[in-house]
Amino acid sequence: MSRQTINLNSGLYRYMLSNTLREDDIAQALRERTAAMAESNMQISPEQGQLMYLLAKLVGCRNAIEVGVFTGYSTLCVARALPAAGRLIACDVSEDWTSVGREYWQQAQVDRKIDLRIAPALDTLQQLIEKGQTRLFDFAFIDADKSNYDNYYEACLKLVRANGLIAIDNTLWAGAVADPEADDEDTQAIRALNRKIHQDGRVDQILLPVGDGLTLVRPR
After folding, report:
1. How many CB atoms lie within 10 A of CB 43?
2. How far apart are CA 7 and CA 10, in angstroms?
3. What is the pLDDT of residues 19-35, one digit of tens each?
4. Residue 172 near residue 5, CB atoms below 8 Å
5. Structure confidence at residue 1 as a pLDDT band (50, 70, 90)
6. 112-148: buried (b, 16+ CB within 10 Å) or exposed (e) per residue?
7. What is the 3-state secondary structure (H, E, C) of the chain?
8. In contact, 67 and 141? CB cutoff 8 Å
9. Which residues pair with 89 in a beta bridge?
10. 4 vs 77: CA distance, rounded Å
11. Which residues pair with 116 in a beta bridge?
12. What whole-number distance in Å separates Cα of residue 101 and Cα of residue 183?
């Protein structure tokens, strides 16, 4: 019995994956292709992808938002959790990175559920708000530029319904958030948002040591 979350060494991590991960050939191929890229550190872990699939299922997700697509592994996981008529508005600024994901979305036959918007995410989110789509989404995932995390959070609070779910990635930031010598802009932005969410009476929340830190927020 442990009073705090145990550390995962490489052997225990492999054991965990072998006893939980249900990743098919399409998802594995996309993840491995991304792993060969110079920017592979931007990819979420496979167990995080499976967790997001389960969370989307648990909230009965029909309409979802993703802020930051990269090569589309997380997009694939969430889209698979949606019903046939579900939709995922996926926000990114890179045609190159998202073009990698398109191929695998098509193979998995979830591409029809994914509405990819190539534009600054804040613009896309504001357009949704202005079109009266507030509180119409069930799930949101934030994993983009850290300096705008607070802006993404506030926009998603307007768009996600009460008792829905917002998931925010990188909230432990490789441990930098707890390092007093780390004072770069991204670390400061994540620290500030972590403090804000902890004290935010509008939501229920928890920061989990999954991947690089995953904060889950339930709007009230």
Report:
1. 21
2. 10
3. 999 999 999 999 999 99
4. no
5. low
6. ebbebbeeebbebbeebeeeebeeebbbbbbbbbbeb
7. CCCCCCCCCHHHHHHHHHCCCCCCHHHHHHHHHHHCCCCHHHCCCHHHHHHHHHHHHHCCCCEEEEECCCCCHHHHHHHHHCCCCCEEEEEECCHHHHHHHHHHHHHCCCHHHEEEEECCHHHHHHHHHHCCCCCCEEEEEECCCHHHHHHHHHHHHHHEEEEEEEEEECCCHHHHHHCCCCCCHHHHHHHHHHHHHHCCCCEEEEEECCCCCEEEEEEC
8. yes
9. 65, 115
10. 29
11. 90
12. 34
Total length of the chain: 220
Q: What does the pLDDT look like over 79-113, one tens digit per residue?
A: 999 999 999 999 999 999 999 999 999 999 999 99
| Encoded tokens for 110 | 């979830």
**199 exposure class (CB count in 10 Å sphere: 0-12, 13-18, 19+):** exposed
**CB neighbour list of residue 61: distance below 8 Å, 6 or more residues apart:** 78, 81, 82, 86, 138, 139
- Give residue for tokens 């939501």: 203
pLDDT in tens, 170-184: 999 999 999 999 999
2: pLDDT confidence band, cut at 50, 70 and 90? Answer: confident
Q: Which two tokens stand for residue 189?
A: 């932005």
pLDDT of 14 over the 70 cut: yes
Beta-strand pair 203-208/114-118: unpaired
